[in-house]
Structures are given as structure tokens and as C-alpha cells.
Amino acid sequence: MNDLDRGESATDEARERLARRQTELLAALVADAPVPPGFDPDQVSAQSTGLAAKRRDTTAKVAPDLPRLLGAAYGPLFLRYARTHPQTGGYHADARAFAAWVLTDGGPPATDHRRALEHWLHPAPQPAGPLARLRRALRGH
């Protein structure tokens, strides 16, 4: 093996180590994984909480019915959900996954809002046609 090959091999190993560390840090930030060695656990926790809060707020903007339906329980429930459910799709998909989680694992707040959440997740089909569209427009839907 010549010097050039050894240099490329060392660079490849360094890239692989960096990629592993980045994956570990990302998992700690968004998936409640252990904090990798060498990182300040308090700082990682603070950043994780901030990212979850941003995700909660953005989800509330794309699905404003959820905070309205859940009231004061929305924020704490979403943060609890976010700790163990990394976002895998867009914010609309995340909102739907969150609502489904609330119905299955959300505890007492879900019981109080079950019917409204189920209706939000699975709305009744809307009749088609110009008259039906006019009625919905007049009702504000």
C-alpha cells in the first residue's frame, strides 16, 4: 500500500467515524437516544427540547384544529409524543400521526377529546357537486 492509499483509507475512516457520531447526536436530539460521549447532556437536552417545541409549534400551524381540540393538553401531549416518535414525513403527516398516537397512547386527555379527534382523523365524506360546494362555502367550510 502506498502513501496515497493510506491517506485515502484514513480519510474514509475519519468520514465513517464522523457519520456515526452525527447519527448518534441526531438520535439523541430527536429520538430520545442516549447522549453520545463527549457531548454535554444538559446542552443536548436543551436543544432537544427546543427542536421538539419548534416541531410542536409548526405542527400547530399546519393543523390548527389539534391545539383547538386538545386545548391546554396539546403542548404537553405533543412534547411527550415527540420524545419517542421522530418525524418521518412532512408536518401534515406528523399531525396525523400525533392525533392517532393521542387516541391510542395519549391517556386521559384523549378520552375527553376522542370523538373530535376521530372525526378530525377520519372526516365524513363530503358530497360532490356544485350545490354541495355552495352549501359548504356558505357554512364556511
Note down, in words, how this protein is organized.
This protein is mostly helical. The chain folds into two domains: 1-39, no CATH class; 52-139, no CATH class. It has seven helices and no strands. The chain has helices at 3-30, 41-62, 65-70, 74-84, 91-105, 108-121, 130-139. Helix 1 crosses helix 2 (41-62), helix 2 packs across helix 5 (91-105) and helix 5 (91-105) crosses helix 6 (108-121). The radius of gyration is 22 Å and the shape is elongated. The termini are far apart. The model has no long low-confidence stretch (mean pLDDT 88).
In summary, what is this structure?
The protein has 141 residues and is mainly α. The protein contains 7 helices and no strands.
Low-confidence blocks of residues: none
Shape: elongated
- What is the helix tally? 7
| Chain-averaged pLDDT | 88
How many domain units? 2
Approximate helicity band:
over 70%
Q: What characteristics describe this protein?
A:
mainly alpha; about 140 residues; 7 helices
